[in-house]
Amino acid sequence: MLFHILYPLAEQFSALNVFRYITFRTGGAMMTALIVSFLFGPVMIELLRARQGQGQPIRDDGPESHLLTKKGTPTMGGVLILLAVCSATLLWADLTNPYIWAVLGVTVGFGVIGFLDDFLKVTKRNSKGLAGKLKLAMQLAISGVAAFWVLSHLPVQLQTTLAVPFFKDLLLNLGWLFVAFAVLVMVGSSNAVNLTDGLDGLAIVPVMIAAGVFGMIAYLAGNTIFSNYLQIHYVPGSGELAVLCGSLVGSALGFLWFNAPPAKVFMGDTGSLALGGALGAVSVVTKHELVLAIVGGLFVLETVSVIVQVVSFKLTGKRVFAMAPLHHHFEKKGWAESTIVIRFWIIAMILALAGLATLKLR
Protein backbone atom coordinates (compact mmCIF):
# COMPACT_ATOMS: atom_id res chain seq x y z
CA MET A 1 0.00 0.00 0.00
CA LEU A 2 2.74 2.47 0.94
CA PHE A 3 4.64 1.47 -2.19
CA HIS A 4 1.69 2.43 -4.38
CA ILE A 5 0.93 5.64 -2.49
CA LEU A 6 4.39 7.06 -1.84
CA TYR A 7 6.68 5.78 -4.59
CA PRO A 8 4.85 7.70 -7.37
CA LEU A 9 5.64 10.88 -5.40
CA ALA A 10 9.40 10.19 -5.58
CA GLU A 11 9.78 12.65 -8.48
CA GLN A 12 8.62 15.49 -6.23
CA PHE A 13 10.19 14.20 -3.02
CA SER A 14 13.45 12.37 -3.72
CA ALA A 15 13.55 10.88 -0.21
CA LEU A 16 10.58 8.69 -1.15
CA ASN A 17 12.76 6.95 -3.73
CA VAL A 18 13.74 4.50 -0.96
CA PHE A 19 10.38 2.78 -1.47
CA ARG A 20 11.63 1.33 -4.73
CA TYR A 21 14.16 -0.78 -2.82
CA ILE A 22 13.00 -4.21 -1.73
CA THR A 23 15.56 -4.24 1.08
CA PHE A 24 14.10 -1.06 2.60
CA ARG A 25 10.55 -2.35 2.40
CA THR A 26 11.61 -5.72 3.83
CA GLY A 27 13.03 -3.95 6.86
CA GLY A 28 9.86 -1.88 7.14
CA ALA A 29 7.69 -5.00 6.99
CA MET A 30 9.80 -6.69 9.65
CA MET A 31 9.53 -3.74 12.05
CA THR A 32 5.81 -3.29 11.35
CA ALA A 33 5.06 -6.95 12.10
CA LEU A 34 7.10 -6.73 15.29
CA ILE A 35 5.29 -3.58 16.46
CA VAL A 36 1.87 -5.05 15.64
CA SER A 37 2.77 -8.13 17.69
CA PHE A 38 3.84 -6.04 20.68
CA LEU A 39 0.79 -3.76 20.49
CA PHE A 40 -1.89 -6.41 20.07
CA GLY A 41 -0.22 -9.36 21.81
CA PRO A 42 -1.21 -8.61 25.43
CA VAL A 43 -4.79 -7.74 24.49
CA MET A 44 -5.20 -10.83 22.33
CA ILE A 45 -3.73 -13.12 24.99
CA GLU A 46 -6.14 -11.81 27.62
CA LEU A 47 -9.04 -12.20 25.19
CA LEU A 48 -8.06 -15.78 24.38
CA ARG A 49 -7.59 -16.57 28.05
CA ALA A 50 -11.03 -15.18 28.90
CA ARG A 51 -12.76 -17.02 26.06
CA GLN A 52 -10.98 -20.36 26.42
CA GLY A 53 -11.05 -20.76 30.18
CA GLN A 54 -9.05 -23.97 30.57
CA GLY A 55 -6.83 -23.21 27.57
CA GLN A 56 -5.54 -25.77 25.10
CA PRO A 57 -6.44 -29.40 25.87
CA ILE A 58 -3.34 -31.38 26.82
CA ARG A 59 -2.77 -34.87 25.40
CA ASP A 60 -3.35 -37.56 28.01
CA ASP A 61 -0.65 -39.74 26.40
CA GLY A 62 1.91 -36.92 26.32
CA PRO A 63 4.73 -36.20 28.76
CA GLU A 64 3.38 -36.10 32.31
CA SER A 65 5.00 -32.73 33.01
CA HIS A 66 2.79 -31.04 30.40
CA LEU A 67 -0.30 -31.71 32.50
CA LEU A 68 1.25 -29.55 35.22
CA THR A 69 3.23 -26.88 33.37
CA LYS A 70 1.08 -26.22 30.28
CA LYS A 71 -2.46 -26.70 31.55
CA GLY A 72 -4.54 -23.54 31.22
CA THR A 73 -2.31 -21.88 28.62
CA PRO A 74 -4.47 -20.36 25.85
CA THR A 75 -3.97 -21.41 22.26
CA MET A 76 -4.80 -19.88 18.83
CA GLY A 77 -1.97 -17.36 19.21
CA GLY A 78 -1.45 -17.88 15.50
CA VAL A 79 -4.16 -15.26 15.02
CA LEU A 80 -1.63 -12.69 16.26
CA ILE A 81 0.96 -14.01 13.80
CA LEU A 82 -1.49 -13.80 10.90
CA LEU A 83 -2.52 -10.27 11.89
CA ALA A 84 1.11 -9.13 11.98
CA VAL A 85 2.10 -10.87 8.73
CA CYS A 86 -0.90 -9.68 6.73
CA SER A 87 -0.84 -6.08 7.94
CA ALA A 88 2.91 -5.71 7.37
CA THR A 89 2.83 -7.36 3.94
CA LEU A 90 -0.16 -5.37 2.72
CA LEU A 91 1.44 -2.17 3.98
CA TRP A 92 4.91 -2.62 2.43
CA ALA A 93 4.69 -5.02 -0.52
CA ASP A 94 3.96 -4.34 -4.17
CA LEU A 95 0.37 -5.57 -4.29
CA THR A 96 0.42 -6.00 -8.08
CA ASN A 97 2.86 -8.88 -7.64
CA PRO A 98 1.03 -12.21 -8.19
CA TYR A 99 3.41 -14.19 -5.98
CA ILE A 100 2.53 -12.05 -2.96
CA TRP A 101 -1.12 -13.02 -3.30
CA ALA A 102 -0.27 -16.69 -3.87
CA VAL A 103 1.78 -16.97 -0.70
CA LEU A 104 -0.62 -14.83 1.33
CA GLY A 105 -3.49 -16.99 0.10
CA VAL A 106 -1.78 -20.16 1.29
CA THR A 107 -0.80 -18.54 4.60
CA VAL A 108 -4.28 -17.25 5.41
CA GLY A 109 -6.04 -20.30 3.99
CA PHE A 110 -4.00 -22.73 6.06
CA GLY A 111 -4.40 -20.40 9.04
CA VAL A 112 -8.19 -20.63 8.72
CA ILE A 113 -7.97 -24.44 8.67
CA GLY A 114 -5.82 -24.31 11.79
CA PHE A 115 -8.24 -21.88 13.43
CA LEU A 116 -11.16 -24.26 12.87
CA ASP A 117 -9.07 -27.11 14.24
CA ASP A 118 -8.09 -25.14 17.35
CA PHE A 119 -11.65 -23.90 17.86
CA LEU A 120 -13.00 -27.44 17.88
CA LYS A 121 -10.28 -28.57 20.28
CA VAL A 122 -11.08 -25.79 22.73
CA THR A 123 -14.87 -26.00 22.52
CA LYS A 124 -15.08 -29.80 22.51
CA ARG A 125 -12.31 -30.11 25.14
CA ASN A 126 -10.30 -32.77 23.29
CA SER A 127 -7.02 -32.82 21.38
CA LYS A 128 -8.50 -34.17 18.13
CA GLY A 129 -10.01 -31.13 16.42
CA LEU A 130 -10.93 -31.38 12.74
CA ALA A 131 -11.11 -34.84 11.20
CA GLY A 132 -7.74 -35.63 9.63
CA LYS A 133 -9.17 -36.39 6.17
CA LEU A 134 -11.18 -33.15 6.11
CA LYS A 135 -8.16 -31.10 7.19
CA LEU A 136 -5.99 -32.70 4.52
CA ALA A 137 -8.63 -32.21 1.82
CA MET A 138 -8.87 -28.51 2.64
CA GLN A 139 -5.08 -28.15 2.54
CA LEU A 140 -4.89 -29.94 -0.80
CA ALA A 141 -7.57 -27.69 -2.29
CA ILE A 142 -5.90 -24.45 -1.19
CA SER A 143 -2.40 -25.51 -2.20
CA GLY A 144 -3.69 -26.85 -5.51
CA VAL A 145 -5.18 -23.48 -6.43
CA ALA A 146 -1.97 -21.75 -5.35
CA ALA A 147 0.17 -24.17 -7.37
CA PHE A 148 -1.79 -23.48 -10.57
CA TRP A 149 -1.63 -19.75 -9.90
CA VAL A 150 2.15 -19.82 -9.39
CA LEU A 151 2.67 -22.05 -12.43
CA SER A 152 0.73 -19.65 -14.65
CA HIS A 153 3.00 -16.75 -13.68
CA LEU A 154 6.40 -18.47 -13.75
CA PRO A 155 8.64 -18.12 -16.83
CA VAL A 156 7.81 -20.82 -19.39
CA GLN A 157 11.13 -22.63 -18.92
CA LEU A 158 10.53 -22.91 -15.17
CA GLN A 159 6.82 -23.68 -15.05
CA THR A 160 6.94 -27.45 -14.65
CA THR A 161 10.56 -27.98 -13.68
CA LEU A 162 12.36 -28.88 -10.49
CA ALA A 163 15.72 -27.25 -9.81
CA VAL A 164 18.34 -29.48 -8.18
CA PRO A 165 20.76 -27.92 -5.67
CA PHE A 166 24.50 -28.02 -6.41
CA PHE A 167 23.85 -28.23 -10.19
CA LYS A 168 23.62 -24.88 -11.96
CA ASP A 169 21.89 -26.05 -15.12
CA LEU A 170 20.02 -29.17 -13.99
CA LEU A 171 16.24 -28.85 -14.31
CA LEU A 172 14.04 -31.92 -14.06
CA ASN A 173 10.90 -31.49 -16.16
CA LEU A 174 8.07 -33.01 -14.16
CA GLY A 175 5.35 -31.97 -16.59
CA TRP A 176 1.99 -31.60 -14.92
CA LEU A 177 3.27 -33.71 -12.03
CA PHE A 178 4.90 -30.47 -10.91
CA VAL A 179 1.51 -29.31 -9.62
CA ALA A 180 1.24 -32.42 -7.44
CA PHE A 181 4.82 -31.92 -6.29
CA ALA A 182 4.17 -28.27 -5.41
CA VAL A 183 1.07 -29.27 -3.45
CA LEU A 184 3.11 -31.92 -1.62
CA VAL A 185 5.73 -29.33 -0.68
CA MET A 186 3.20 -26.86 0.71
CA VAL A 187 1.08 -29.42 2.57
CA GLY A 188 4.13 -31.33 3.80
CA SER A 189 5.87 -28.19 5.04
CA SER A 190 2.70 -27.04 6.81
CA ASN A 191 2.19 -30.31 8.66
CA ALA A 192 5.90 -30.67 9.45
CA VAL A 193 5.91 -27.34 11.29
CA ASN A 194 2.70 -28.40 13.02
CA LEU A 195 4.37 -31.58 14.31
CA THR A 196 7.36 -29.60 15.55
CA ASP A 197 5.22 -27.19 17.55
CA GLY A 198 5.16 -29.09 20.84
CA LEU A 199 7.34 -27.14 23.29
CA ASP A 200 7.54 -23.48 24.25
CA GLY A 201 9.43 -21.63 21.54
CA LEU A 202 10.47 -24.81 19.74
CA ALA A 203 8.87 -24.19 16.34
CA ILE A 204 8.79 -20.40 16.09
CA VAL A 205 12.57 -19.84 16.06
CA PRO A 206 13.33 -22.42 13.33
CA VAL A 207 10.47 -20.87 11.32
CA MET A 208 12.02 -17.44 11.81
CA ILE A 209 15.42 -18.74 10.70
CA ALA A 210 13.94 -20.44 7.62
CA ALA A 211 11.93 -17.32 6.74
CA GLY A 212 15.09 -15.22 6.93
CA VAL A 213 16.96 -17.63 4.65
CA PHE A 214 14.14 -17.74 2.11
CA GLY A 215 13.79 -13.99 2.23
CA MET A 216 17.41 -13.83 1.08
CA ILE A 217 16.85 -16.55 -1.54
CA ALA A 218 13.78 -14.74 -2.89
CA TYR A 219 15.71 -11.48 -3.16
CA LEU A 220 18.61 -13.15 -4.98
CA ALA A 221 16.40 -15.22 -7.30
CA GLY A 222 14.47 -12.11 -8.26
CA ASN A 223 17.56 -10.08 -9.10
CA THR A 224 19.18 -10.65 -12.50
CA ILE A 225 22.66 -9.63 -11.37
CA PHE A 226 22.79 -11.78 -8.24
CA SER A 227 21.04 -14.76 -9.82
CA ASN A 228 23.50 -14.75 -12.72
CA TYR A 229 26.47 -14.40 -10.38
CA LEU A 230 25.30 -17.25 -8.15
CA GLN A 231 24.08 -19.26 -11.15
CA ILE A 232 20.65 -19.82 -9.67
CA HIS A 233 17.49 -19.66 -11.75
CA TYR A 234 16.13 -16.16 -12.23
CA VAL A 235 12.45 -15.83 -11.31
CA PRO A 236 11.19 -12.35 -12.27
CA GLY A 237 9.11 -10.81 -9.49
CA SER A 238 10.08 -13.32 -6.82
CA GLY A 239 12.24 -10.73 -5.06
CA GLU A 240 9.08 -9.10 -3.71
CA LEU A 241 8.58 -12.17 -1.50
CA ALA A 242 11.50 -10.92 0.59
CA VAL A 243 9.05 -8.34 1.97
CA LEU A 244 6.62 -11.08 2.99
CA CYS A 245 9.46 -13.13 4.51
CA GLY A 246 10.52 -10.03 6.44
CA SER A 247 7.02 -9.82 7.89
CA LEU A 248 7.29 -13.52 8.86
CA VAL A 249 10.55 -12.83 10.69
CA GLY A 250 9.09 -9.80 12.49
CA SER A 251 5.91 -11.60 13.50
CA ALA A 252 7.93 -14.60 14.69
CA LEU A 253 10.11 -12.36 16.86
CA GLY A 254 7.04 -10.67 18.29
CA PHE A 255 5.30 -13.96 19.00
CA LEU A 256 8.44 -15.39 20.61
CA TRP A 257 8.23 -12.58 23.18
CA PHE A 258 5.02 -14.17 24.47
CA ASN A 259 5.85 -17.78 23.61
CA ALA A 260 9.22 -17.89 25.37
CA PRO A 261 9.25 -20.37 28.28
CA PRO A 262 7.00 -20.39 30.18
CA ALA A 263 4.68 -19.60 27.28
CA LYS A 264 1.81 -17.20 27.84
CA VAL A 265 0.16 -18.43 24.66
CA PHE A 266 0.53 -21.25 22.13
CA MET A 267 0.37 -20.58 18.40
CA GLY A 268 -1.80 -23.66 17.89
CA ASP A 269 -2.58 -25.08 14.48
CA THR A 270 -3.66 -21.58 13.47
CA GLY A 271 -0.04 -20.49 13.49
CA SER A 272 1.89 -23.65 12.70
CA LEU A 273 -0.13 -24.67 9.63
CA ALA A 274 -0.03 -21.10 8.28
CA LEU A 275 3.71 -20.62 8.81
CA GLY A 276 4.64 -23.99 7.33
CA GLY A 277 2.42 -23.37 4.33
CA ALA A 278 4.01 -19.96 3.78
CA LEU A 279 7.52 -21.43 3.74
CA GLY A 280 6.45 -24.14 1.32
CA ALA A 281 4.80 -21.65 -1.03
CA VAL A 282 7.86 -19.36 -1.08
CA SER A 283 10.10 -22.31 -1.90
CA VAL A 284 7.86 -23.26 -4.83
CA VAL A 285 7.92 -19.74 -6.28
CA THR A 286 11.70 -19.38 -5.94
CA LYS A 287 12.36 -22.88 -7.35
CA HIS A 288 14.16 -23.93 -4.17
CA GLU A 289 11.82 -26.67 -2.99
CA LEU A 290 14.65 -29.13 -2.30
CA VAL A 291 16.62 -26.47 -0.44
CA LEU A 292 13.64 -26.13 1.91
CA ALA A 293 14.19 -29.75 2.92
CA ILE A 294 17.71 -28.74 4.01
CA VAL A 295 16.90 -25.39 5.62
CA GLY A 296 13.84 -26.89 7.29
CA GLY A 297 15.63 -30.13 8.07
CA LEU A 298 14.54 -29.97 11.70
CA PHE A 299 10.90 -30.11 10.59
CA VAL A 300 11.75 -33.01 8.28
CA LEU A 301 13.45 -34.86 11.13
CA GLU A 302 10.43 -34.42 13.40
CA THR A 303 8.11 -35.69 10.67
CA VAL A 304 10.29 -38.68 9.87
CA SER A 305 10.35 -39.64 13.56
CA VAL A 306 6.54 -39.83 13.54
CA ILE A 307 6.47 -41.87 10.33
CA VAL A 308 9.12 -44.30 11.62
CA GLN A 309 7.26 -44.67 14.92
CA VAL A 310 3.93 -45.44 13.27
CA VAL A 311 5.36 -47.85 10.68
CA SER A 312 7.46 -49.68 13.26
CA PHE A 313 4.54 -50.10 15.64
CA LYS A 314 2.19 -51.35 12.93
CA LEU A 315 4.71 -53.82 11.49
CA THR A 316 6.43 -55.09 14.64
CA GLY A 317 4.34 -53.86 17.55
CA LYS A 318 7.42 -52.08 18.90
CA ARG A 319 8.23 -48.38 19.16
CA VAL A 320 11.55 -46.96 18.00
CA PHE A 321 11.23 -43.83 20.13
CA ALA A 322 9.96 -43.43 23.66
CA MET A 323 7.45 -41.03 22.12
CA ALA A 324 7.04 -39.19 18.83
CA PRO A 325 7.60 -36.53 17.56
CA LEU A 326 11.29 -36.54 18.38
CA HIS A 327 11.25 -33.71 20.94
CA HIS A 328 8.91 -35.76 23.14
CA HIS A 329 11.35 -38.67 22.95
CA PHE A 330 14.03 -36.56 24.59
CA GLU A 331 11.54 -35.34 27.20
CA LYS A 332 10.82 -38.95 28.08
CA LYS A 333 14.57 -39.51 28.35
CA GLY A 334 14.77 -36.83 31.02
CA TRP A 335 16.08 -33.84 29.06
CA ALA A 336 14.90 -30.48 30.35
CA GLU A 337 12.50 -28.66 28.03
CA SER A 338 14.83 -25.67 27.71
CA THR A 339 17.72 -27.97 26.78
CA ILE A 340 15.71 -29.61 24.00
CA VAL A 341 14.48 -26.29 22.64
CA ILE A 342 17.88 -24.58 22.54
CA ARG A 343 19.66 -27.59 21.05
CA PHE A 344 16.99 -27.87 18.36
CA TRP A 345 17.47 -24.15 17.64
CA ILE A 346 21.18 -24.80 17.16
CA ILE A 347 20.42 -27.65 14.75
CA ALA A 348 18.04 -25.37 12.83
CA MET A 349 20.75 -22.72 12.50
CA ILE A 350 23.31 -25.23 11.24
CA LEU A 351 20.87 -26.57 8.66
CA ALA A 352 20.04 -23.03 7.54
CA LEU A 353 23.72 -22.35 6.91
CA ALA A 354 23.94 -25.61 4.97
CA GLY A 355 20.97 -24.52 2.87
CA LEU A 356 22.58 -21.17 2.14
CA ALA A 357 25.75 -22.95 1.08
CA THR A 358 23.83 -24.56 -1.79
CA LEU A 359 23.60 -21.11 -3.41
CA LYS A 360 27.35 -21.00 -3.95
CA LEU A 361 28.33 -24.66 -4.28
CA ARG A 362 27.43 -25.18 -7.93
Q: How would you describe what is shown here?
A:
The chain has one domain. The protein is 67% helix and 2% strand. The protein has helices at residues 2-6, 22-52, 66-69, 78-92, 98-124, 132-153, 177-196, 204-221, 224-230, 241-259, 268-285, 289-295, 297-316, 326-332, 337-357; strands spanning 161-163, 171-173. Strands 1-2 form a two-stranded antiparallel sheet. Strand 1 and strand 2 form a beta hairpin. The longest helix has 31 residues, at 22-52. The mean pLDDT is 91.
Please describe the structure with a list of short key phrases separated by commas or semicolons:
single chain, 362 residues, mainly alpha, two-stranded antiparallel ribbon, 15 helices
SSE topology:
Elements: H1 2-6, H2 22-52, H3 66-69, H4 78-92, H5 98-124, H6 132-153, E1 161-163, E2 171-173, H7 177-196, H8 204-221, H9 224-230, H10 241-259, H11 268-285, H12 289-295, H13 297-316, H14 326-332, H15 337-357
Antiparallel strand pairs: 1-2
How far apart lie the N and C ends? 38 Å
Number of domains: 1
The number of strands is 2
Strand order of the largest sheet: 1-2
Helical segment count: 15
Oligomer: single chain
Relative strand content: under 5%
Please provide a brief summary of the model.
With 362 residues, this protein is mainly alpha-helical. It has helices at residues 2-6, 22-52, 66-69, 78-92, 98-124, 132-153, 177-196, 204-221, 224-230, 241-259, 268-285, 289-295, 297-316, 326-332, 337-357; strands at 161-163, 171-173. It has one domain (23-161, 174-289).
